[in-house]
Structures are given as structure tokens and as C-alpha cells.
From TrEMBL:
GO CC field: cytoplasm; nucleus
The entry's keywords: Cytoplasm, Methyltransferase, Nucleus, S-adenosyl-L-methionine, Transferase
A single BP term in Gene Ontology: methylation
The name this protein goes by in its record: protein-histidine N-methyltransferase
InterPro entries found in the cross-reference section: Methyltransf_16, SAM-dependent_MTases_sf
Species of provenance: Colletotrichum fructicola (strain Nara gc5) (Anthracnose fungus)
Keyword field contains Acetylation: no
Enzyme class: transferase
Record carries keyword S-adenosyl-L-methionine: yes
Low complexity composition bias: residue spans: 24-52
E.C. number(s) listed in UniProt: 2.1.1.85
Family, similarity comment: Belongs to the methyltransferase superfamily. METTL18 family.
Amino acid sequence: MSSSFSFGFGGDDIEDDSPPAPASAPAGPGPDHTAPPAAAASSSSSAFPVPGKTQLPPTGHDLKHMLAQLPSKVAFSTLDVALDDGTTIAIPRRELHDVKTGVYEGGFKSWESSVDLVKVLASGGYLDALKDRPLRVVELGCGTALPSLAILQWAMRYATERSPLLLTLADYNPSVLQLVTLPNFILAWALERRDQSPAVQEAFALEDELELTPEVLQQFQDFLASSHISLNFISGGWSQELIDLLYESQSKLDQQTHESDNINKDFDTLLIGAETIYSPFALEAFNEMVFAILSKEKAERGGSGCGGSQEAIAEETEGVRRGVVSCTLSSSG
């Protein structure tokens, strides 16, 4: 049994996009120009922990409800990540030039730290658990969720030989989860399956654009169910309440997986985060969140120690630098 943590810390983003334009009324009723209700940001809240400012409360989001709030189509591009073994993985990302939110959030962009983390996941053997036992992945501050998207793509290629996969995506902003994270997962699935489904192939009629027809969305849900892949979305500030919600929602998913698949194995947990943080206060909150989850995992699993200590994580995240830090909890039984 093991629980792994990888921390990517980067200072540069990997694209030169301009921020979305200030909020304005759309010229017409185009469905892809109006943010859904979940995308509305609170003007009294901050995107990161700031002393004296109210944080958004931890909130779980139902997948079916999120799917119902999607536009009729999404534009996208792909990011080619060169891996250490010489291969390349192409990860799709929704283009947000058509979204006007009024506030530019870092979660809408992809950062170099997330690319670093994708490379580490590919070379570190972290995904071997997919072939042997159920795997739970938790990505903190997910944003565009490049690391989790890479895991999904690899999992789809292991479809006939892997165990169940639970993917939990946590981001402060519900708007990021709705407008970026979920569409990216649909895109990753659709690009992998386009040659196997006439409906998906037809949805790619226009270059770099995917139509989110009811049939496509239903096939996406059917794929998740038949492949034993679960998506769990949580928004809100880093706090003990978020941790409680994280484990509460995961417990329900675990139970559903055990009941539907008659699986009597515990899940290994892979905790990942690729964050670019410039605020010491926010960094402290993030570290406390990570340490609390590691401590809970160790207590529940009877962990005997952490290879790559928590002290090392704290040291590596002090100051401004870029790198990936890992911590593995080994079970005592």
C-alpha cells in the first residue's frame, strides 16, 4: 500500500494568451458566450487564501449537473509534452477566447509546473498501480488538470487490463472546474475514441472544435461507467472542511465501486498538485492541506514512514524555485 505526493512548482506559464476581456453582454444568445451559473465568481472572495478575505466554502459538484451546464460546442488546442523516454503525449485544452468572465483567473491557464509533473508521472512508475489495484488520484489546484488528463489518457490505453480509477479534481474556483477542467476531460476522451464512434467523429466536423451533442455527452458517461472511471469535482478554499468533503465524497465513490464491481481491494492514493504560488500565506495554506492529507492517509493505512520526508517538501517549497518533490507512504502491513 502506498500514498504518493508530487509537488510541481513553476514560475512561468507555457502560453502567451491574453486574459479574457472584461465582462460584457453578448451580442446574441449564443450558448458558448454565457458562463453557466456555477461559473459566477464571488466578488467578495479571493482566488487564493488572503488574510482577512472570505474564502469560498468547499462544495462538491455533481457530474450530471455540470454536463447539463456545458455549451453546445468547445474550441480547443493540443499541448505536446515531450516525455523523458522520447515519446510525446498530446493533451487537449479548451480555448477560452469565447468566454467572458470579468475576472482573469490563473486556473484558466496551463503552467510549466503541470508539464513537469506530467513528465514525472510518466517516468516514475506511479501508474503501475493501475494494472494491479484500484487507484485514487487527487489533484489539488487542478486548473486545466494536465497531469490528471495524462493519467486518463494512459488509463484508456490500459482499458482491458487495469483496475478502477477514481479521479478527484479540486480547484478553488467552481468556474474553472465548469469551464476548463470538465471540458478538457471530455476532449481527452473524445480524441482517444473518435475513430471508434461515428457520433464522436461527426462531432469533430470543424477543425479544433468539438460539438457537445447529447449523444456525445451520453457516450462519455457510458464510457466512464463501463471503464470503472469516476470523476469527482470539488471547489473551495484549502481547509479542513475541504479535506472532510474530499474523504466523504471519495468514500461514497469507493462504496459504489465495490458494490458494482465486487472489488475487495483498497485503493492506492496518488495526491498530486502543480501550483505556481507567489503568496507566502497561500503557500502555507497549501502545505498544511497536503500535510493534513498525508497524515490522514498514514493514520488510516498504518503507514510506517515517508520516503522523501514532509520536512523535505517544506524546504523545497520555501522561496521561489521550480521542481518536483515526492513523498511515498509505505504501509506496515
